[in-house]
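Researcher: We're teaching a course module on how sequence relates to structure. For the next exercise, students receive a sequence and then see the predicted structure as tokens, so they can try to spot secondary structure elements on their own. Here is the exercise chain.
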Amino acid sequence: MTRRDWLAALAGMFTAAALPAAARSGGAAPGLNKPKSEWKRLLPPERYRILFEEGTEPAGSSPLDREKHDGTFVCAACYQPLFDSSRKYDSGTGWPSFWEPLPAAVGTKTDFKLILPRTEYHCARCGGHQGHVFDDGPKPTGLRYCNNGLALQFVPRADKLPALRT
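Model: And here is the predicted structure for the students to work with:
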């Protein structure tokens, strides 16, 4: 057992009891509890790596960091709404950042990948890794949900879309 495996097992012992049952079973709702092999088949390789291997993308690489329109940011795997655009702000980190997720949209667990504990958050429906939450965000929460752009898709508000000509 490697040091990384040991730390992951230790973290799992402390967080498993605190997670809701859906998160303990992979964070999936009925019909979305797919094996990783199926998510790998359905998603582009970089999205799969971020969402289901807990990877990250280079800072500044996502156009969603600069997205300013009204709408909803959804999970790129299962399309669950995660963040409203009114909760997005420019953190200067190079990743899309939000000060609050939608109710019951994300779950959290402790991540020891960088030795010191961090709070990782994931889609509460499919379990896809989104990013990490930090306590250096703006009021009113003081939190910064630092999200991988490839873990998200942006859906503009329907009332903000241009009218269709018939």
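Model: If you want an answer key for the exercise: The chain has one domain: 3-157. The chain has a mean pLDDT of 82.
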